[in-house]
Amino acid sequence: MKLYLSSYKLGDKTEELKRWIADHNNKICLIPNSRDVFPDGERKVTGIQADVKDLEDLGFDVTVISLKDYFNRKEELSKRLEEFNAFYVIGGNTFALRQAMYLSGFDEYLKSIEDKPDYLYAGYSAGICVFAKNMHGLDVCDDPSINPYGIETIWEGLGYFDYIFLPHYKSNHKETKLIDDSVEYCNKNNIKYRTLRDGDVIIADTCKSIEQEEER
Predict the structure, then answer these.
(1) Rounded to whole angstroms, how far apart are CA atoms 53 and 68?
(2) 180: part of which helix (H) or strand (E)?
(3) pLDDT tens-place string over residues 99-108
(4) What is the 3-state secondary structure (H, E, C) of 3-37?
């Protein structure tokens, strides 16, 4: 599975995504559940639609699928996702997203396709932070106690990186100060991390050793 991991929105390597469309197809599933911590309303809908438009402007045919519709229905989710080989997971609250992945079985689904090179996982902010083995340190910038689903906080990430991502570092973003605080916390507590400035994108491949990740 190819990983397109961006600090914010689509980042500066969108030619990679255009190449994906050319080599595969333009169907993509957008997962919005990191935003479930926010109240439903026009602002929330508008934000998600902005992410949809970003993808459409690149040439993608976008379908939004909420993992909430598949909580405790893992087999149904797996069947629903059969028509897609590309996923885009947007930013919001990392801990809410991780819980939604667990409750729906999306985390298990990703494991089932990780050795298949014809799949793409793209995401930004919370959508990439869930890829750490352990998400301690992210609680400085994301509140783990805000729980929209009524289960305990999950600290274990998807396990692909042995460090946490800290997006929006030294960027024109409202969370940049929180990221500075996260860096300080990680340094004091010997937590491995990698900062990304908005625009930065990491290209990696779960079919290979994660150490073969590259910035192109």
Answers:
(1) 22
(2) helix 176-188
(3) 999 999 999 9
(4) EEEECCCCCCCHHHHHHHHHHCCCEEEEECHHHHH
Going along 37-196, which residue ranges are E strands?
61-64, 86-89, 120-124, 164-166, 193-195
Name the percent of the chain lying above pLDDT 70: 96
Among 12, 25, 103, 15, CA closest to 61: 25
**Token output for 207:** 């079919």
End-to-end, the C-alpha distance of the chain in Å comes to 17
Distance CA 70, CA 55 (A): 24
**Cα(34)–Cα(207) distance, rounded to whole angstroms?**
26
Catalogue all structural domains in the chain, each as residue range(s) with its CATH number: 2-212 (3.40.50.880)
Instruction: For residue 35, count other CB atoms closer than 10 A to its CB.
Output: 22
Position 57, amino acid: D
* Tokens (6 digits) for 214: 């590259």
Mean pLDDT of the chain: 94
Alpha carbons 144 and 103: distance in angstroms, whole number? 16
